[in-house]
Structure formats: structure tokens, C-alpha cells
Amino acid sequence: QELGTPDSTGQFIVSAKSVEIRPGPGSYFAGGNAIRVDFTGNTISKLTTLADNSEVDYAQIEPEVLTNLFDTSREKRRLVRFDDIPKILVEAVLSAEDKRFFSHGGFDSVRVFGAAWADVRHGAKAQGASTIDMQVARSFFFSTRRRWSRKVKETLVALELDQRFTKQQIFTLYANEVYLGNRGSFAIRGFGEASQAYFGKDMRDLNVSECAFLGGIIRAPSYYANAEAHPDRAADARDRVLAQMVENGYITAQDFESAKANKLKFVGGA
Q1: Model pLDDT for residues 201-233, shown as the tens digit of each residue
Q2: Segment 10-30 mean pLDDT
Q3: Which helix (H) or strand (E) holds 182?
Q4: CA 88 → CA 40, 207, 242, distances in Å?
Q5: Average pLDDT for residues 35-55, to the nearest whole number?
Q6: I want to staple 40 with a disulfide (CB 3.0 to 4.6 A). Which of 45, 144, 166, 190 is the partner?
Q7: pLDDT category, 126, cuts 50, 70, 90?
Q8: Between β-strands 35-40 and 18-23, what pairing exists: parallel, antiparallel or unpaired?
């Protein structure tokens, strides 16, 4: 859109002999890759990056949108395959949500009965204890209302999912469906979209600290995900998962300290 158009994916500025193209924070380039195109008559004479004023032979601009993957609930997602998901991100999610995911059959009796006992002791209802299989079942078939009757139904569907699909397939469903906060009026669904929304990165380029953050916000995305306004919450979510990853043997204590010292750098006001 032309300069001054609100909520545009990017903007362009026209002068006598050039056009500046500035992708916005919500663009494919997350605000980077700004260029100036100089003309001589009707011919392009030079391409220059605005970041460092260097001349380049070619440049990419925002690709044309063919379709948006969202419905009336205004959800954005970038579908991924299991092979696309970094091993360290899988380990962060397992540590945060379901460390025995690849060994149980959809129902983790240790975790669920432990949560039930905690509920009885504290007089609360349905403390979070769902396996990843159960969370997938809930996402596609049930509401989020916290009741043990719902957990029974989730468990039955989770057991059936485990019979029909591989663990890799179930984790892929989860990785593309999990709710990870909002960006503007859109709900962020899945790690592919979240990695771009929060860090302006392809999911495969995430570091340990960023993977731990994404794993850490799953349990309460609305509380943890407003990273710019509450960096302390973001750090708490990340550090909690990093500690769990050490406990589970995925990273060392030295890795923990290094990742903890690595400041989270967010983009796009997520």
C-alpha cells in the first residue's frame, strides 16, 4: 500500500526517479528486506538495500497472497511437517507438556492420577494433566471447559488416535493446531506461524532459548505471549522449560545458563 495506509502488509514511497519498498512487521520478511528501485526512463537502473545502502543485483519483494489459512475465528497458521520441526523444539514441548509422549499409548496414568490427587487435596477442578494426544483430541472434538467428564472423553479419543496414527503424525497435528497467543486480531496457531510472529524466523532457525519460550507459553498463551509488554513473563516461561529440559537430559546445565543469558529478541510487537 502507499505510505500512510494503516494496517498494510508493507508500504511503498514514490519519488521522481525511484520507488522505495518497505515490508511491514506482518510481512513475509517481518519488516526486513527494504529496498530502493532507481529508474532511468522506463528501465530499472539500480537496486539498493535501505538497511546499509549497498547495491544488489536482485531483490525479493512480498509474494502475492493466493489464500489465507484462517476462518471466521481469524486464525493464522503455517503448516509444517514433522521432519521440519527442530529436534530441540520437540524436546522443549515434550518437557513442558508431555515428557512421556513417545512411550505412552495416549494416556499417562502417572501424570493424570497425580493431577487428580492434587485436585482433591486443594479442592480445585481438573488441574492441567492432559497428554499431547488428549490435547489434540480436545482441539478437534471438545470444548476447553475444565471438567473431569471431558477428560474421560478426551482420553477415549486419545487412545483411539494412538491406535490409528503414529506418534509423529499426532505430534504434527499438535504442532499445527496448538494455540500460541494473538497477533493483532489473529490467533496464532502452530509453531510455524509462532516462530515468524514472535521472532521473524523460520521455525528451523530457532535457537534453544526461543524453542523453550514457545514451549513455555502453551499452558497460558494469553498471559505469557505479550512478550514486548511483559519481558519478565516471557523469561519466566522460557526458564521454566529450560530447567525441565535439563531435568529430562535434553540439555546440560551449561546449556541452560547459556540459553538463559541469551536475551529473547521479539519482532512485530508480538
Answers
A1: 899 999 999 999 999 999 999 888 677 778 899
A2: 84
A3: strand 179-183
A4: 50, 8, 11
A5: 93
A6: 45
A7: very low
A8: antiparallel
CB neighbours of residue 179 within 10 Å? 18
Provide CB contacts within 8 A for 3, sequence distance 6+.
11, 12, 13
> Mean pLDDT, the chain, as a whole number?
84
DSSP 7-41: T-SEEEEE-SSEEEEEE-TTSTTTT---EEEEEET
Tell me the per-residue pLDDT of 68-107, one tens digit each, with 9 for 90 and over: 555 555 666 788 999 999 999 999 999 999 999 999 988 7
Quote the pLDDT of residue 144. 64
Taking a C-beta distance cutoff of 8 angstroms, is the pair 144, 188 a contact? no
As a whole number of angstroms, the distance between CA 31 and CA 230 comes to: 22
Which of 92, 117, 103, 118 has its CA nearest to residue 208? Answer: 92
Q: How far is CA 147 from CA 97, 109, 133, in A?
A: 19, 17, 17
d(CA 181, CA 178): 10
Residue that the C-alpha cell 494426544 belongs to: 133
- Gap between the Cα atoms of 136 and 166, Å rounded: 13
The residue behind cell 522505495 is 20
Q: Which amino acid is at 122?
A: H
46-61: buried (b, 16+ CB within 10 Å) or exposed (e) per residue?
ebbeeeeeeeeeeeeb
Shortest CA distance to 193 belongs to which of 221, 166, 167? Answer: 221
The DSSP call for residue 105 is S
